[in-house]
Write the structure tokens for this entry.
Amino acid sequence: MSGIGERYQQETKYSPDVLHGRKRQRHRRAEPFKEYEEPLAVIPLPEPDFSGGADLWQAMKHRRSRRAYSQETALPADVLATLLWATQGISAGKGEFLFRTSPSAGALYPVETYLSVRAVETLQPGLYHFRPQHFDLEFLKKGDRSRELTAAALAQNMVQQAHVTFIWSAIVARSTWKYEDRAYRYIYLDAGHIAQNLYLAGEALGLGVCAIGALFDDEINRLLDLDGTEETIIYMAAVGLRER
Ligand SMILES: Cc1cc2nc3c(=O)[nH]c(=O)nc-3n(C[C@H](O)[C@H](O)[C@H](O)COP(=O)(O)O)c2cc1C
């Protein structure tokens, strides 16, 4: 018997027969933006800083997964704002669609961004939720969570050292509304585009970035109060200032 991965790949294939025979289920469309009713605070982000004049080809050439970070200083808030813009910033508006720096299947943007902040100038350590439509952060939980997050990342020490860890979840219904089970493929692809933008922006800014797929899903879901089904963690990335 084939495993679930192989069955998923087979059963979510498009073919002319499948596409023509498909009856679109009419689910209610999920909200395109998540907002918390009572965050501890809403913190506007500074303008992204594009003044460094990054060279895309150099960033591609030198990008690496970097897992050791300097412990000397905090990450400037405008650098964090630039990374958030690079990953999920709204870069154009058209009708009901607000297009972003990273592509998304059907422009449905199922991926949400949370931050575990350990050492960022002007931000208290804690957990935050990014709102791309307002370009701000909702402060969710006070206190440095890097120890818990490290444990939830299979004890990968880079999380403990990172100035900030990006945590990406997906609100699955935003995509299943249109793509049904095939949506999971697109959710993971979307997350990959987002992470690559973080890698390239991080490289251009002289930071260290490392993607993290090895994680205990439910521990991180619990940390963020996600139910793990309608919204679930899919990917993370540690970010820090490079060691000199
Ligand atoms: C989906 C994905 C998951 C990854 N998960 C981890 C991880 O949990 N821990 C880690 O140290 N590196 C992780 N990486 C980084 C890879 O190990 C790294 O990209 C690979 O070794 C190639 O090296 P480079 O990124 O420096 O080119 C991940 C990369 C991807 C794309």
